[in-house]
Amino acid sequence: MGRKQTFTETELLDMTKKLVLEHGYDGFHLKLLSQHLSGARSTIYQYYANKEEIVAACMKRVIANVLEHASAVDESDPLKALEELLLIYVEEAALHQLLGDASKINTSNSTAAARDLEFIEDAHQTLKNQLSRLFERAQQDKSLRQDIPLPVLIGVFFNLFNTPNMMNLPTADWGRLLFQTWIGGAKS
Amino acid sequence: MGRKQTFTETELLDMTKKLVLEHGYDGFHLKLLSQHLSGARSTIYQYYANKEEIVAACMKRVIANVLEHASAVDESDPLKALEELLLIYVEEAALHQLLGDASKINTSNSTAAARDLEFIEDAHQTLKNQLSRLFERAQQDKSLRQDIPLPVLIGVFFNLFNTPNMMNLPTADWGRLLFQTWIGGAKS
Amino acid sequence: MGRKQTFTETELLDMTKKLVLEHGYDGFHLKLLSQHLSGARSTIYQYYANKEEIVAACMKRVIANVLEHASAVDESDPLKALEELLLIYVEEAALHQLLGDASKINTSNSTAAARDLEFIEDAHQTLKNQLSRLFERAQQDKSLRQDIPLPVLIGVFFNLFNTPNMMNLPTADWGRLLFQTWIGGAKS
Amino acid sequence: MGRKQTFTETELLDMTKKLVLEHGYDGFHLKLLSQHLSGARSTIYQYYANKEEIVAACMKRVIANVLEHASAVDESDPLKALEELLLIYVEEAALHQLLGDASKINTSNSTAAARDLEFIEDAHQTLKNQLSRLFERAQQDKSLRQDIPLPVLIGVFFNLFNTPNMMNLPTADWGRLLFQTWIGGAKS
DNA sequence: TATGAATGAGACTTCATTCAT
DNA sequence: AATGAATGAAGTCTCATTCAT
Fold it and tell me: A18, C140, D90, D141: which has the highest count of C-beta atoms within 10 A?
C-alpha cells in the first residue's frame, strides 16, 4: 500500500555522511541534502523530525559499525590488535571528523537525537577504553619505547587515521604502511 | 578625532581566527563576531566589505606569519630543518584547519578576498615546495628509510601537526616529542 | 466488502467538533483530527474533499440539531418558551463559539462548504427571528421591564449561554438557574 | 544615531491585540502583523525574539492596565465597587478572550514569554480575588439574593463583559445598563 | 477502499548587508 | 566614524492535499 519510496533511509544516511564530511556540520543543509536525493525537501521530514536527528542517526550508524568491527578484534597480541584496529579506523577515516561535529548537535529539540548522541558517547568511550587497554599492555610487554610518554604515542597513533591517502592505495595496504611508519619511525 | 575607537583591525582578525577555529567556516557569523567585540555589527563594515574578506584576510595573516618563519629556517641539514619546521607548524597548529576552510570562501563577491586567497595558495605552494625539497634531500642522504614510499612519510609528517597536545606541554617540548616519535617510531 | 471500516462519518464530525472547540478554527488541523481517529489522514478525503467542507458539515449538523429542537418549542407563553429555548441553547453551548468560527471558513474552494454555510446562515436567522418574536411578545405582555432597551435584554440573554457551568450541574438545573438569574436579577 | 523607526513598540502591540482578537491565537501570523505595520516582517524580530513573546507582551500590557484601574476602585460599598469594576472590564472587553488564548502560548522557547505569562497569571488571580472578596461581602450584607448559589451569580456577572455592545452606546452607559439588567433582572 | 509516501505552499526565524542619522 | 534600524534572501519546519499501490 502507499507509493513507492523515492529514496531509502540508507541512501539518505549515506548522502548525509558524504555531505557533512564535505561541508561540515554548519554547512550541511536539508536543501543541500534534498538536492542530492531524488525527492523533495519536505519528504525528508517523513523520516526524521529535524536536521539534528538526521545527523545524529548518521553518526550513530557510523560509530556502531566501527564498534562492531572493533569488538571482533582478537586482543591477545596487543601490537597485532592495534594494527588491526588501525585498519578498521582507516577504513572509516571519517569517524574522527564526524565525532568532532557531534558536539555541535543541539539536542534540546529532539529526544531521538539526544538518545543517539548518548549512544555515540558510550561507543566512543568503549573504543577509547579498548585502545587504552591495548596500549597499556603493549607498554608492559616492553613493545613500546619508554622514553616517549604514552599519551604522545597514543595521540600520534590516533592522529594517523586522518592522514590523507593521496596515493589512493587500497586501504589494507595503506593501513599497513601507516602502521609501519608509526611503529618503526621515519629514519633509516 | 570623532568617536572613540571601538576595536582595532588586529582585534577583529584575532577574534575571527578564534571563532572560525571554534565554529568552522560555516558556523562563523558576523553576529557572533560582533558579540565578541566591543562595537556594533555594522561597524565591521568600516574595515571589510563583507564576510568573505574578513576570513580571507584572517587566513592570509596566519599563513604569511608561518611563511615568514619558515623562510628563515636554515636548510643546510634537512632533518634539523624539518624539526624546526615542525615546531613552527605546531606553533600555528590552526593553519591546516584554516586552510581546509579556505576553499569554502566564495570569492565571486569580492576581488580583495580573491587576491588574498591567491596569496594564500601561493604561500601554501611555497611551503609545500620547501618540505618536498627537504624530504628529497633527506632521502638522498639516506636519512630516511627506503621501504616506505616518500609520500607516506610526508603525509604522516604533515598530519603530525594536528595531534592535539593533550598534556599541554610547552609547544617547543611538544614539537620535539612529536618529531622523536615520528623519526624514531613507537616500538622500543 | 473490502477493507475494515476505519471510522464512521459520525465519529469524524464528533471529533471535529471537539477539536474545533478545543483549538479554535485556525488551530484545527487534519493531522490533529487523524491522530484522534483510528485511520490515516488521507482516508479523511474519502469523506470530504477538503478541510473547509469538514468544518462546514460539522457546524451544519450542530445548528440543524438546535433548529430542530427550537422549532418544536411551544411558543404560546413567551417567557416559558424563552426558558425552554435557553435550555436547548445551554445544552449546545458550543453553538455560539462554532458560529463565531463559521465566518472564517473560506468557501472559495468548495461549493459544498458554501452550500452548508448558507444553510447555517439561514438557520441562524431563523433562530434569531424566533427569539425576536418571543421577546417582542413578552414585552407587549408587559412581562419585561421597560426601562432597559430590548436589545440589551436580548444581548444579555444571548450571552447567558456561554456562562461556564463551573459547578457541573445537570444542564436542566443549570439552565433553570441561569434563567432565574436573568429574569429575577441578582439583588435580594 | 541609527535610522528612524518605522513603527513604535506601542503600534506593534496595539496591532497585535487587534489581530489576535480578530483571528484568534492560531490565526495570528507575523506575516499578517507585518502587513498591518509599515515595515518588513523581519524587522519585528528586532523587538521581539519570536511570536510567543509578542503575544505574551501584548496580553501582559492589557491585563496590567486593567489591574491598575481595578486596584484603584474604592471597595467600601461592595455593589458600587462591582458596578465600577464592570465598567472597567467592559472597557477592556477583550480581556477575557485574550486570557483564553494565553494558555496556548508555548513558553518553552522563550523565557521572556514565560515571565510575562507568569505576570498574567498572578494578575488574573489578583483580579479574581478582588471579585470574590466583593461578592462575599455583598452576600453578607444581604444585598444579593440567597436562593441562587453564589457561583452562579458570579458566573453570570463575569460573562456579562462579553455581551456585544450592538447599540454602540458609550461604554459608561452600556456598562450601567448591563449592571442594571444583572442586578434587577429582566422581568418587569 | 484505505493508506503510506510525496510534495509545494506558507509560516517562522536568522543573518549578511545597507541605510540614514 | 559609529551605529541602531531595516530588510530580503535563505534555511527550518508544518500541513493540506495528491498520488499510486
Answer: D90
Enumerate the residues of chain B whose CB falls inside 8 A of the CB of residue A184: 145, 185, 187
Looking at residue B3, its pLDDT comes to 52
pLDDT at D118 over 70: yes
Helix ranges (H only) for chain C are 9-23, 30-35, 51-71, 78-91, 94-102, 111-140, 150-160, 171-184
* CATH H-level superfamily of C51-184: Tetracycline Repressor, domain 2 (1.10.357.10)
Residue C187 sits at φ, ψ, to 5 deg, of -75, 155
- Asked if the C-beta of B21 comes within 8 angstroms of chain A's C-beta atoms, the answer is no
- Residue C3 scores a pLDDT above 80: no
Which pLDDT tens digit goes with each residue over D87-109? 999 999 899 989 999 999 999 98
Residue C147 pLDDT > 80: yes
CA-based R_g, chain B, Å: 19
> Which chains pack against D, by 3+ Cβ pairs within 8 A?
C
Q: Which CATH architecture has domain B56-184?
A: Orthogonal Bundle (1.10)
Kindly state whether A170 is in contact with chain B, defined as any CB-CB distance less than 8 angstroms: no
Report CB contact under 8 Å: B177, A148: yes
> What's the CA–C1' distance between C105 and F10, in Å?
32
Q: For domain A52-184, give the fold.
A: Tetracycline Repressor; domain 2 (1.10.357)
D182 touches chain C (CB under 8 A): yes
Nucleotide nearest D43, from its CA to each C1': F6
Q: Which three cell numbers stand for residue C115?
A: 452550500
Domain chopping of chain B, boundaries: 1-47, 56-184
- Spatial contact of D180 and C187, defined as CB atoms under 8 Å apart: no
Which residue stretches of chain A have pLDDT < 70? Answer: none
Q: Which residue is nearest to nucleotide E18 (CA to C1')?
A: B42
Exposed/middle/buried for residue D114 (C-beta within 10 Å: 0-12, 13-18, 19+): middle
**What letter represents residue D167's amino acid?**
M
Q: Point out the residues of chain B with pLDDT beneath 50.
A: 1-2
Residue B59 CA distance to nucleotide F4 C1' (Å): 31
Contact A82, A153 (CB under 8 A): no
Chain A with chain B: Cβ pairs closer than 8 A: 125
Exposure string for C48-81, b = 16+ CB within 10 A, e = fewer:
bebbbbbbbbbbbbbbeebbeebeebeeeebbeb
**D2: confidence class by pLDDT, cuts 50, 70, 90:** confident
Mean pLDDT of D123-133: 95
